[in-house]
Protein backbone atom coordinates (compact mmCIF):
# COMPACT_ATOMS: atom_id res chain seq x y z
CA UNK A 1 0.00 0.00 0.00
CA UNK A 2 1.05 3.61 -0.62
CA UNK A 3 -0.24 4.91 2.75
CA UNK A 4 0.70 4.38 6.36
CA UNK A 5 -1.24 1.36 7.60
CA UNK A 6 -3.58 1.57 10.56
CA UNK A 7 -3.47 -0.61 13.66
CA UNK A 8 -5.79 -3.59 13.47
CA UNK A 9 -7.89 -2.36 16.40
CA UNK A 10 -8.83 0.76 14.43
CA UNK A 11 -12.19 0.46 12.67
CA UNK A 12 -12.51 3.95 11.18
CA UNK A 13 -10.44 6.82 9.87
CA UNK A 14 -10.97 10.41 8.73
CA UNK A 15 -9.90 11.48 5.26
CA UNK A 16 -9.41 15.23 4.83
CA UNK A 17 -8.98 17.50 1.86
CA UNK A 18 -11.37 15.66 -0.44
CA UNK A 19 -13.45 17.35 -3.14
CA UNK A 20 -17.03 17.56 -1.88
CA UNK A 21 -18.36 17.33 -5.43
CA UNK A 22 -16.38 14.19 -6.29
CA UNK A 23 -17.76 10.69 -5.78
CA UNK A 24 -15.65 8.35 -3.67
CA UNK A 25 -15.54 4.65 -2.81
CA UNK A 26 -13.37 2.88 -0.25
CA UNK A 27 -11.68 -0.50 0.03
CA UNK A 28 -9.68 -2.09 2.84
CA UNK A 29 -7.11 -4.86 3.07
CA UNK A 30 -5.58 -6.63 5.99
CA UNK A 31 -1.93 -7.37 6.53
CA UNK A 32 0.22 -9.44 8.87
CA UNK A 33 3.84 -10.53 9.10
CA UNK A 34 3.44 -12.57 5.97
CA UNK A 35 2.13 -9.68 3.87
CA UNK A 36 -1.09 -8.07 2.63
CA UNK A 37 -4.21 -9.87 1.70
CA UNK A 38 -6.57 -8.98 -1.17
CA UNK A 39 -8.65 -5.82 -1.28
CA UNK A 40 -12.18 -5.88 0.02
CA UNK A 41 -15.07 -5.16 -2.31
CA UNK A 42 -15.67 -1.44 -2.94
CA UNK A 43 -17.92 0.43 -0.57
CA UNK A 44 -21.04 2.21 -1.61
CA UNK A 45 -20.15 5.43 -3.42
CA UNK A 46 -20.43 8.71 -1.57
CA UNK A 47 -20.50 12.31 -2.72
CA UNK A 48 -19.99 14.61 0.24
CA UNK A 49 -21.89 17.45 -1.41
CA UNK A 50 -24.99 15.28 -1.43
CA UNK A 51 -24.87 15.09 2.37
CA UNK A 52 -24.31 18.78 2.99
CA UNK A 53 -27.32 20.94 3.81
CA UNK A 54 -29.02 22.59 0.88
CA UNK A 55 -29.16 26.37 0.60
CA UNK A 56 -31.92 27.97 2.71
CA UNK A 57 -34.45 30.38 1.29
CA UNK A 58 -33.67 34.09 1.45
CA UNK A 59 -34.28 35.47 4.97
CA UNK A 60 -36.64 38.32 5.81
CA UNK A 61 -35.60 41.46 7.68
CA UNK A 62 -37.64 43.32 10.29
CA UNK A 63 -36.69 46.68 11.79
CA UNK A 64 -36.82 46.62 15.60
CA UNK A 65 -35.65 50.18 16.30
CA UNK A 66 -33.19 52.72 14.89
CA UNK A 67 -30.13 50.53 15.56
CA UNK A 68 -31.51 46.97 15.62
CA UNK A 69 -33.12 44.53 13.21
CA UNK A 70 -34.36 40.97 13.28
CA UNK A 71 -33.39 38.35 10.67
CA UNK A 72 -36.08 35.69 10.12
CA UNK A 73 -34.86 32.47 8.51
CA UNK A 74 -36.02 28.90 7.87
CA UNK A 75 -33.49 26.03 7.72
CA UNK A 76 -33.95 23.86 4.62
CA UNK A 77 -35.28 20.29 4.78
CA UNK A 78 -32.71 17.61 5.60
CA UNK A 79 -31.54 15.62 2.57
CA UNK A 80 -32.59 11.98 2.51
CA UNK A 81 -29.88 9.98 4.23
CA UNK A 82 -28.06 13.11 5.46
CA UNK A 83 -27.54 13.92 9.13
CA UNK A 84 -29.58 16.56 10.94
CA UNK A 85 -28.68 20.22 10.82
CA UNK A 86 -26.56 21.48 13.69
CA UNK A 87 -26.18 25.23 13.42
CA UNK A 88 -26.97 28.31 11.35
CA UNK A 89 -24.68 31.20 10.57
CA UNK A 90 -26.30 34.57 9.91
CA UNK A 91 -24.48 37.18 7.82
CA UNK A 92 -25.46 40.86 7.69
CA UNK A 93 -23.95 43.11 5.08
CA UNK A 94 -23.74 46.69 3.89
CA UNK A 95 -22.94 46.97 0.22
CA UNK A 96 -20.65 44.06 -0.59
CA UNK A 97 -19.13 43.64 2.89
CA UNK A 98 -20.57 40.80 5.02
CA UNK A 99 -20.13 40.16 8.75
CA UNK A 100 -21.26 37.24 10.87
CA UNK A 101 -23.69 37.70 13.77
CA UNK A 102 -22.60 36.45 17.18
CA UNK A 103 -25.53 34.60 18.75
CA UNK A 104 -24.24 35.29 22.27
CA UNK A 105 -24.11 39.10 21.98
CA UNK A 106 -26.42 39.73 18.96
CA UNK A 107 -23.71 41.93 17.44
CA UNK A 108 -21.69 41.83 14.24
CA UNK A 109 -18.55 39.92 15.12
CA UNK A 110 -17.19 36.37 14.81
CA UNK A 111 -18.62 34.23 17.56
CA UNK A 112 -21.23 31.61 18.35
CA UNK A 113 -23.49 30.31 15.57
CA UNK A 114 -27.24 29.99 16.04
CA UNK A 115 -28.80 26.62 16.78
CA UNK A 116 -30.57 25.12 13.80
CA UNK A 117 -33.54 24.22 16.00
CA UNK A 118 -33.81 27.67 17.54
CA UNK A 119 -36.56 30.23 17.20
CA UNK A 120 -35.92 30.84 13.50
CA UNK A 121 -34.72 34.43 13.91
CA UNK A 122 -31.62 36.35 14.93
CA UNK A 123 -31.62 39.74 16.67
CA UNK A 124 -28.86 42.07 15.49
CA UNK A 125 -28.01 45.12 17.63
CA UNK A 126 -25.55 47.99 17.46
CA UNK A 127 -26.25 48.94 13.84
CA UNK A 128 -26.21 52.43 12.33
CA UNK A 129 -29.25 54.65 11.90
CA UNK A 130 -30.41 55.29 8.36
CA UNK A 131 -28.18 52.56 6.85
CA UNK A 132 -29.52 49.91 4.45
CA UNK A 133 -28.74 46.28 5.37
CA UNK A 134 -29.11 42.84 3.78
CA UNK A 135 -28.78 39.36 5.27
CA UNK A 136 -28.08 35.77 4.21
CA UNK A 137 -27.73 32.48 6.10
CA UNK A 138 -26.06 29.07 5.76
CA UNK A 139 -26.63 25.79 7.59
CA UNK A 140 -24.12 23.25 8.89
CA UNK A 141 -24.23 19.54 9.71
CA UNK A 142 -21.48 17.10 10.68
CA UNK A 143 -20.22 17.04 7.08
CA UNK A 144 -19.78 20.82 6.82
CA UNK A 145 -21.47 24.00 5.72
CA UNK A 146 -24.04 24.10 2.97
CA UNK A 147 -24.37 26.82 0.37
CA UNK A 148 -25.42 30.35 1.34
CA UNK A 149 -29.00 31.45 0.89
CA UNK A 150 -29.85 34.23 -1.55
CA UNK A 151 -29.59 37.70 -0.07
CA UNK A 152 -32.64 39.18 1.60
CA UNK A 153 -34.45 42.23 0.36
CA UNK A 154 -32.72 45.42 1.56
CA UNK A 155 -33.98 47.11 4.72
CA UNK A 156 -33.15 50.69 5.70
CA UNK A 157 -33.24 51.48 9.39
CA UNK A 158 -35.04 54.69 10.41
CA UNK A 159 -33.18 57.94 9.88
CA UNK A 160 -32.12 59.91 12.97
CA UNK A 161 -34.71 62.50 13.91
CA UNK A 162 -33.72 66.08 13.05
CA UNK A 163 -35.02 69.07 15.06
CA UNK A 164 -37.84 70.91 13.32
CA UNK A 165 -37.94 74.72 13.77
CA UNK A 166 -41.01 76.51 12.51
CA UNK A 167 -41.38 80.25 11.69
CA UNK A 168 -41.25 82.59 14.65
CA UNK A 169 -44.59 83.77 15.91
CA UNK A 170 -45.36 87.50 15.55
CA UNK A 171 -47.45 87.45 18.73
CA UNK A 172 -45.37 87.98 21.84
CA UNK A 173 -48.16 87.96 24.39
CA UNK A 174 -50.89 85.48 25.19
CA UNK A 175 -53.19 84.69 22.33
CA UNK A 176 -56.86 85.37 22.99
CA UNK A 177 -59.78 83.90 21.15
CA UNK A 178 -62.37 85.79 19.11
CA UNK A 179 -64.15 88.62 20.86
CA UNK A 180 -67.42 87.65 22.41
CA UNK A 181 -70.53 89.49 21.21
CA UNK A 182 -71.72 92.27 23.53
CA UNK A 183 -74.44 91.23 25.91
CA UNK A 184 -76.94 93.78 27.23
CA UNK A 185 -77.84 93.15 30.82
CA UNK A 186 -81.47 94.12 31.30
CA UNK A 187 -81.90 93.22 34.93
CA UNK A 188 -83.94 90.57 36.56
CA UNK A 189 -87.41 91.77 35.39
CA UNK A 190 -89.39 89.55 33.12
CA UNK A 191 -90.24 90.53 29.57
CA UNK A 192 -93.88 91.21 30.49
CA UNK A 193 -92.84 93.50 33.34
CA UNK A 194 -90.49 95.49 31.05
CA UNK A 195 -93.20 95.85 28.37
CA UNK A 196 -95.70 97.11 30.95
CA UNK A 197 -93.18 99.65 32.25
CA UNK A 198 -92.48 100.92 28.72
CA UNK A 199 -96.21 101.34 28.03
CA UNK A 200 -96.60 103.29 31.27
CA UNK A 201 -93.77 105.61 30.33
CA UNK A 202 -95.26 106.29 26.91
CA UNK A 203 -98.62 107.20 28.51
CA UNK A 204 -96.92 109.63 30.90
CA UNK A 205 -95.09 111.31 28.06
CA UNK A 206 -98.24 111.67 25.97
CA UNK A 207 -100.17 113.15 28.91
CA UNK A 208 -97.64 115.89 29.52
CA UNK A 209 -97.90 118.58 26.80
CA UNK A 210 -95.13 121.07 26.78
CA UNK A 211 -95.40 124.38 24.84
CA UNK A 212 -91.90 125.08 23.73
CA UNK A 213 -92.86 128.67 22.58
CA UNK A 214 -94.27 129.70 25.94
CA UNK A 215 -92.07 131.92 28.17
CA UNK A 216 -90.25 130.21 30.91
CA UNK A 217 -91.81 132.43 33.61
CA UNK A 218 -95.45 133.67 33.74
CA UNK A 219 -96.09 137.40 33.17
CA UNK A 220 -96.87 139.57 36.22
CA UNK A 221 -100.05 141.62 36.27
CA UNK A 222 -100.08 145.34 36.96
CA UNK A 223 -101.72 144.83 40.32
CA UNK A 224 -98.90 142.66 41.46
CA UNK A 225 -96.44 145.40 40.54
Question: Can you tell me about this structure?
Answer:
The protein has 225 residues and is mainly beta. It is 8% helix and 24% strand. It is built from one helix and 14 strands, in the order ββββββββββββββα. The chain has one helix spanning 191-207, and strands at residues 23-24, 31-32, 35-36, 46-47, 60-65, 68-72, 87-94, 97-102, 107-108, 114-115, 121-124, 132-141, 144-145, 155-156. Strands 7, 8, 9, 10, 12, 13 and 14 form a seven-stranded antiparallel beta sheet that branches. The longest helix has 17 residues, at 191-207. It is rod-shaped and about 155 Å long. The N and C termini lie far apart (179 Å). Mean pLDDT is 81; it is low at 179-183.
Q: How would you concisely characterize the structure shown here?
A:
This protein is mostly beta strands and 225 residues long. Helices cover 8% and strands 24% of the residues.
Radius of gyration: 51 Å
Give the overall form.
Answer: rod-shaped
Number of strands: 14
User: Mean of residue pLDDT?
Assistant: 81
Tell me the helix content. under 10%
Largest sheet: 7 strands, antiparallel
Distance between the termini: 179 Å
The parts where pLDDT drops under 50 for at least 5 residues are 179-183
Q: What is the chain-wise order of helices and strands?
A: EEEEEEEEEEEEEEH
Share of residues in strands: 15-25%
Compute the number of helices. 1
Structural class: mainly beta
